[in-house]
Amino acid sequence: MRIESLHASAGIGGYYWRDQEAIARGAPRDGFLYQGSPSTPGFESIIQVSSTVLLTAIADDGRELHGDCATVNHAFRSGRQGLPVAQDLIALAEGPLQQWVAGCDLDQFRPLAAQLDVMDLHGKPLHMALRYGLSQVLLQAVAAHRRITMAEVLADEFGLKLARHPAPLLGSCGGNWHENVDKAILRKLPYFPQTAMVRLDQLDALPEYAGWISERIKKIGAASFTPTLHYDLHGLLSLRVGHDIKAAVAYLLEVERACDGRPVLFEDPLDAGNKSDQIALMGELKAALRRSGSGIRLIADEWCNTRQDVADFVASNCCDLIQIKMPDLGGVDNTVQACMTCTAGGIGIYLGGSCNETDISARVSSHIALVVEPTEFLAKPGLGVDEGVMIASNEMTRAIRSYAPRVNADQLEVA
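Structure (tokenized):
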């Protein structure tokens, strides 16, 4: 099989682009929107409808292969690449990249994805979003050519095992703190609520909210249901306590006590403003939590965008897990290799991305989840719990049902 043509269209993302800096610093709410001017360069308003570029490759047998050039919700910040211009990506996809993919040998995925990482067009490397979308197309194409699942391609080429069961899902409850928690409990999600905290009033409300979640689990959850509670602070605690580790620990312990003995994950409680300082600050916080006797585990996200960033965070041992934020890594091969770096370094994998992604990128992500053994896997896109859980869960279930009868036992993870 070969690819004959590549087409690109302007599409929409699964959520919105939000200027987190403006929101965190007190922009007045106006329904779903916020009043005032954006704080972060690149934003036209504090909340913007997100866009993406939809790639469709046509194979010589008429088959269509899809990839979406998705970006993350909190754009422009924490060292992330700026948002792409859709028409620029479309011009590249339907111009020089169409010629390139038509010449691709589809026997293997990894060498093709590696070429995207170093490709230079018009004097510039490919934007991460374009590498993300095109690598999805190539992975699907190689899988179709070999008549196996995308998960099998990745397991074969990276020397990994295939999962026997779907990866544990993280339900992202977004701003609907109460109804979406009920959904997560009813669906028995092992990780939630993620919370997507962006305002200081949410930070103030978190201890009480954590207590409410604990009571709600007791009231409507099964007796055997023991979820891990994951809270993403987006560095907001720095706006309240600065870099005061003692004050940060006191706050986190207050929330942990409200969780009533349940395991707790905190994603980026503090934000130091750059990578090297973030690593140092998170390392201090982790050490202080250990000295306190707390069972809290820390997740790194901000300032950890590339494979090299992941390697640096792993080497520092400053955190317990790292969010592998897939769109920021560009090609999905980089996601796999970043996960392998975490595993080799004894750091847990939060296979993430963004509520702003699409159904296509979420399905491809689901195949990656089946080979990298994540601690938790973000159900995406969106912040409504149900839709993202359905997409990720069903895709993993389909893939396992497909490959399980044809692979040898030694190709599967230990049960």
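Residues 169-411 form a domain with the TIM Barrel fold (CATH 3.20.20.120). The longest strand covers residues 3-18.
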